[in-house]
Amino acid sequence: MPRPSKKSSAKTAAPAAAANGKSDRLDTHVLEALVGYNARRAWLVVSGVFSERMAPYGLKQIDFSVLSLLAHNPGATSRQLCNTLDILPPNLVSLVATLDSRGLIERRPHPHDGRAVGLHLTEAGEKLIGEAEQTVAQLEADASARLTARERETLIRLLQKIYL
Question: How many CB atoms within 10 Å of residue 36?
């Protein structure tokens, strides 16, 4: 007798479980006690909203982070960005090239280190990140709407204690 495919057995498992009085919900108490699991689940919600709302700007999370850092730290070097964002230099090289080709950033000689190059936003980059930061502020408020302002501040502070 042929075995049912996983697809067909999955379809019949749910009604059978319901008929036996069992729920489709799995016991997740071990996972829900883990910081990483909860951080990842929250990240999935926030990053999904982020991706949706940043699509009109053509920005991914790392693009936004770099542009925001440059908006508030004009002339930052690639090394500083890598250290701050914990990314590898080869990954930043292609990102900087992409942002440069979009006309969002420009390279200028560093005023204090003749070997270094400072990265600066162009006028288009400043305009884009200004709008994007406002959008991100709203999406963060929406994503954390179930939290009070104090709970949100506490959550951020506690998460930072893990990685700072």
Answer: 9
In a domain, 56, yes or no: yes
Q: Model confidence over 121-150: pLDDT tens digits?
A: 999 999 999 999 999 999 999 999 999 999
CATH code of 127's domain: 1.10.10.10
| C-alpha distances in Å from residue 17, one per residue of 6, 10, 20, 26, 65 | 16, 11, 5, 12, 46
Specify if 22 maps to a domain: no
Residue type, 93: V
Query: Is the pLDDT higher at 58 or at 19?
Result: 58
Query: Which structure tokens are listed for 150?
Result: 């104090």
Q: Is residue 24 part of a domain?
A: no
* Tokens (6 digits) for 31: 């996972």
Single-letter residue type at 153:
E
Name the domain count of the chain. Answer: 1
pTM over 0.85: no
The residue range of the domain holding 43 is: 29-163
List Cα–Cα distances, 46 to 8, 50, 70, 100, 137, in angstroms: 34, 6, 23, 27, 12
